[in-house]
Amino acid sequence: MTTSLKAALKTHFGFENFRSKLQEDVVKAVVRRDRDVFVCMPTGAGKSLCYQLPAVLAEGITLVISPLIALIQDQVDHLKSLNIPACSINSKLPAGERRLILADLGSSSPKLKLLYITPEMVASPSFQPCLTDLCTRGLLSYLAVDEAHCVSQWGHDFRPDYLKLGGLRTRLPGVPCLALTATAPKKVQEDISESLKLSSPLSFVTPVFRSNLHYDVIFREMLPNPYVHLYAFVRKSLALDAGSNAQGCGIVYCRTREGCETVAYQLTKLGVLAKAYHAGLKAGDRTEVQHEWMQGKVLVIVATISFGMGVDKANVRFVAHWNLAKSLASYYQESGRAGRDGLPSSCRTYYSPKDKEQLNFLIRQEIGRRQEKRGSAKETDKAGITDFEAMVSDSPRNVASPENLAAAAAAAGAASLSCPDTSLSLHLPTSCRHATISKFFGDKTPNCAGACDYCRNPKGVRAQLEKAAALSTKTEAQSRPSGPFGFQPDLYEGGKKGYGFERHGDSSDAAGEGPREDFVPPDVDCPLREASSQRIPRLTVKKSRPTLSSMSSPPLSCGTLSLAVDLEHEVFKSSKSSNLYKAAVLKKVSEMKKTAPAPARGNGDDETEVKEEATASSSCSDELQGFTSASEIYSMKRKRVGAGQRGSSNPFVTAKELLKPSMLDSKGTESGSESNTDASSAVTSSIRARANAAAAASLSSPTKTGKAMSKKQQKLAEAAKSSRNISQYFVKKPTVEKSQEEEMEVDEEGLDAPLSHTTTADPREDSKPQEHSPEVIPVESETEEESKTDVIIIPDEVEEEALELEQLQETDKESTAEPNKPAEEAKPPLISEVSDDVKANRESPPPAKRSRPADGRRVTFNPNVQERALLPVNEPPKPVTLKEAADIVVRYLDPFYTQGKFANKELFKSFARYLSHLLAEGRSRGKGQVKAEAKALIKKLFSSVKRCESEEDWKHLKRPHSCKTTENKE
Ligand SMILES: Nc1ncnc2c1ncn2[C@@H]1O[C@H](COP(=O)(O)OP(=O)(O)OP(=O)(O)O)[C@@H](O)[C@H]1O
Ligand SMILES: [Zn+2]
After folding, report:
1. Which of 47, 75, 206, 333 should be mutated for ligand 1, with most atoms under 8 A from CB?
2. In angstroms, rounded to a whole number, what is the distance separating the alpha carbons of residues 163 and 161?
3. Can you give the pTM of this predicted structure?
4. pLDDT per residue over 892-920, tens digit each?
5. Which residue in 342, 431, 466, 909 has a CA-CA distance of 20 to 30 Å to 583?
6. What is the predicted ipTM?
7. pLDDT tens readout for residues 615-646
8. Does residue 493 contact residue 516 with C-beta atoms inside 8 Å?
9. CA of 74, nearest ligand number
C-alpha cells in the first residue's frame, strides 16, 4: 500500500515522500475507508493532503467543507494547477460555470474529484437536491471538514453553521468523514467528534510543542518607546543587521484597524517597510498587501486577525502580538504562523494591562449579548472567558486548577504576567510558556530547552513583573479618584463612571502609545462651549491635540469657527449619548445643506479664495494660539478608519479641521496625500462626520468655502450622503443612554471574527427601524447629485453584516472574485448566499435608482411612503436584482428580528435569504411590487407563527401573485 500511495503522491502532487510519518499514517487510515478520522496537526503540516490524495484515488467526489471562500479559492487553484479536477460552488461563481459544475455533478460519472463548499452553502436549501442526488447515487467518497474546531462552541472560532454539519453527516450514511484542525484542546476535540457524529474515529494528534519557536513577553507600557522596541525586535528577528539575505518576514497582530495603521506607519518611519492589513481596507488593497508580503516586497504585515488563516508562508521569522490575543488557543494559532519551515523563529507579546481589561470586558459583553438574544445562559458561554483567562489569569484559583487554566496563567500570551493592579508577586509565572501551552492543549510538559524567556531567564521575567507592579501601583496612586473625570477602579463593573474616560478614551489605548492617559480638563480658553462637561459619557476632551498654532494649514475665519462651535454646542446640549450626538450632528448638517444654496464648484478661483480666507482669518487664529481648538476637542468612539487614516486617533473631527485639508486640497498642496485616499472606500462614521461637518462649515461661509470645495471635499460630501440615511436611522432612536460598550465594540475587529458572528456589535441595537417615523424633506435646495443618492437606505445592520461576512468568508481574496457579476445580475443564481448580496450592498454606494418624482419631493426612510412618492411616472418598473430584493427584505425583516421574532440570528438570515430568492425569482417585477410582496409574505409568516423557530415555519410561503401595487397597475 505504501508503495502505491507514494507513487500516487509523486504522480499527482509531485512529492517524493510524505511530509511526516503522521501524514502518511493519516492518508493510509483514510484510504481504508473503514473509520472516521480526526486529525490535529499544526498549521503547515500538510493536513490538506490527508484528504486530497485519498480523494484523487477514490471513485466519486470528496466534499470538502471549509470556512472561507478565500481559503477555498487557494486550494482549488492549487489543485487545478496540478490537473486535479476540483472546484467550488459559491455565490461568486458566474452562472455559466455553476451550470457546468452542476451538469457534471449530475452526470453518470462526474469528472470532479473535490468539491469545496462553505458550511453556509452546504446547508442552503438550493444545494440540497444536488447533495441528495450525489448521495443516493453513491458518488460521495468522503466528507472532509477543514478547520473543524469551528464546530465547537468551546473553540475559539465557533461558526454556528458548522453545527449544521452534524445534520449533514446523518444524511450521508456510509460516507467516511475526516475532520481536520490545527488547534484543538481536549474539550474541543470531544466536541468535534460529537458534533460531527464521528463514529469511533481514529485520532491523529501532533504534540503542540514546537521547539523552533521562542516565546517571550514584554511589558509594553514599561517601554520608553514601544515602537522603537518593536523595530529592534523586527530587525533582530529578520537578521537585518547581520546583512542576512534570507528572505524572512514577519507579522504583527493588532486588535484594531487603527492600531494596524499606526504600527505600520511607525515601523516604516523607523526604517522597516511595513503595511497594514485589515477589513477596513478595500479588498483590492488587502490582496495587494498580502501579495507584496508573500513575495517579500513588504517585510512586515501589520494585521488584525482577519489575516492569516490559510496563509501558507514558510519563512515567517516572527509573529509579534501588539495587543493580546483573545485566548490561548487563538494565540497558539496566530503565533504558530511563525517558523513553518522549522527554523528558529520568535513569538513575542507586547503585553499591556489595558488590553487585558478591554478584552475581558468585550468578551463578557459579547457573552451577555448572546445570552440576551438566546434568553438563557449556556455552559459554553464560559468558554470565551476561560480561554481568555488561560491567557491572562492571575487568580490563584486558576493557578491551582487542574484544567490548565492555571498553567495558562503564566503562559503564552504572557498575559499571565498581567494584572499589575493586583498583587503580582503572588502570581509570578511558575513555569515555562511552552509548558503552559502544552498543558492547555492536554499534552505533557515538553522539554523547552530555553525556547522561552522564562526558561532562559526566570529572574529577568520576575524582575519585569515586579517593575510592572511597581509602576502600576504608582500610576494608580497618581490617578486614583482624581475628581469628576478620574478613573475609579472600584466602579469598574458598576457603571459608566467606572470605565472612566481614560480607559476607553481612544486610540492610544489600542495602539499602545505610552502610558495610560488621564483626562485633562480643557484649557479655560478652549473655544468649545462647555468643553469640560461630561454629560455625554464618551465625548472626551483631549488636551494633547495639536493647537491652532501648530497647524500648517490655513486657519479658519473666526466666523466659521464660532459657528462650528455653536453648532456643536447646540447638538451637544440636546444629545444624551455619543451616538445620538453624532447622529444629530449629521442630521443638522444634512438639514443645513438642504436649505443653503448649492456651492459653486471648480470655477478656477479656488486658490484665490482660499488665500483670502486664510488672510481674513489669520488674526483670529493668532488670538486662538495655544488653545486646543474646537475641532480637535471632541474625541468620539473609534469608528472604522480606512486606509490613509494612519496614526489618526480622533476620527470624529468637526467643521474646522475638516475644512483645513479640504482647503489645502483645493490649492493642490496636498493632493495625493494619504488623507486624501479614497474616502468612499472607507465610508466610516468618522469620515461621514467629517464630510458632514465640512458641509456645515462651508455653509457658514457659503461663498468662500463653497468655492474652495475640493475633490476631497466632494468625495467626503458623497460619503456624507450615504451617511445621511444612517444618521436618520440613529436620530429616530429613543434616547437610551448606552454604556461605554459602544465605544469599544466598534472597531474591535480583532475580536469580531474569533467570537463568531455575533461578536460584531449587534447591528440591531443601533438600528431599530420600527421606531422611525416618516420624514418628508423638501428637495428644492438639493443639488442634482444629492437627490440621486437618497433613495436606498442602508441600515447599519447591513454594513455590520457585510463586515462580519467579509471577515469570516472573504477576508483576503476578494480580488479573485469578479467585481461585477453581470451573469449574476442577468440570471438568478442557482445557489447563492444572501450574505454576498448584503456585502455587495455595502461595497458599492447606493446607485441612483429612481428618477425624482414629479412633485419634487423626496421621501426618506419610510419605505411605505417611498413607494408612493418615488415611483417613476409612466415608466415600466425596473426589475429588481437579487441584491435589491435582499436589501428590501433585510430592511423589512429587521424590526421583527429586533423584536425577538426569530429564535436566532441564523434563522433570521436564512429566512432573509429564502425570501430574497423568492422575490427575485423571474426578475420581472419592479421594486414597488417586491416591497409589497415582501411585506405581505412577512406578514403571512407571522400570522401563522408567533415566533419563527425553524425553517419549517416558512416553507409554506409562496409568492403572493395577487399582490398588486401601484407599480403593477402601470
Ligand atoms: N508530503 C509533502 N511533501 C512536501 N510538501 C508537502 C507535503 N504535503 C504537503 N506539503 C506542502 O506543505 C504545505 C502546507 O500544507 P497544507 O496547506 O496542507 O498545511 P495545513 O496543515 O493544511 O496548514 P493550515 O493549517 O494552514 O491549513 C503546502 O505547501 C503543501 O503543498
Ligand atoms: Zn520554556
Report:
1. 47
2. 5
3. 0.47
4. 888 888 778 888 877 888 888 888 888 87
5. 909
6. 0.97
7. 333 333 322 222 222 232 222 333 333 333 33
8. no
9. 1
